[in-house]
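Re: that backbone. Tokens:
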């Protein structure tokens, strides 16, 4: 059984067939029942699909903020995204097309969703969408009226 490396999200099937006991657990303090192990595999697959793959704090000027960035495929942040400010309140956050998984194998990155949260009280709205190609999030930030673009720091999560 070999579960795929990030950024590929493992399904329950990636962990192999349902686990069954070959014999009854001998010691409950050291042995896991097959049903428990199967339940844990299902939980891991479920969490992998429900949690963001990466996040980044972006300043109003379009730089990565003091809080930095984090990606599940690279906890050392060698693959931090690039950020560009294209106009007032308009940003592009781009991740590399390929990243290395835990085994050093290049994997295609394909993001499917994004959420941006403003980091100033004056801002009440930020929108984010994943652009064609699956490696870029386009973010727009607005004042509280929701129609006036404004440069604002934001927190971006991508799935």
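Recovered sequence:
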């Amino acid at each position: 059984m070999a579960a795929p490396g990030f950024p590929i999200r493992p399904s329950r099937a990636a962990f192999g067939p349902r686990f069954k006991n070959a014999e009854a657990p001998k010691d409950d303090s050291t042995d896991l029942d097959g049903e428990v192990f199967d339940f844990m595999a299902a939980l891991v697959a479920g969490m992998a699909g429900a949690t963001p793959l990466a996040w980044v704090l972006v300043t109003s000027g379009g730089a990565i903020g003091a809080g930095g960035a984090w990606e599940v495929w690279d906890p050392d942040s060698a693959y931090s995204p690039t950020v560009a400010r294209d106009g007032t309140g308009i940003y592009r956050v781009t991740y590399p097309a390929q990243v290395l998984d835990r085994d050093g194998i290049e994997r295609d990155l394909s993001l499917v969703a994004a959420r941006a949260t403003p980091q100033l009280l004056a801002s009440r709205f930020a929108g984010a969408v994943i652009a064609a190609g699956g490696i870029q999030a386009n973010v727009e930030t607005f004042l509280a009226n929701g129609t006036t673009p404004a440069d604002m720091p934001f927190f971006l999560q991508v799935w």
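The two ends are 25 Å apart (CA to CA). Residues 34-50 form the longest helix (17 residues).
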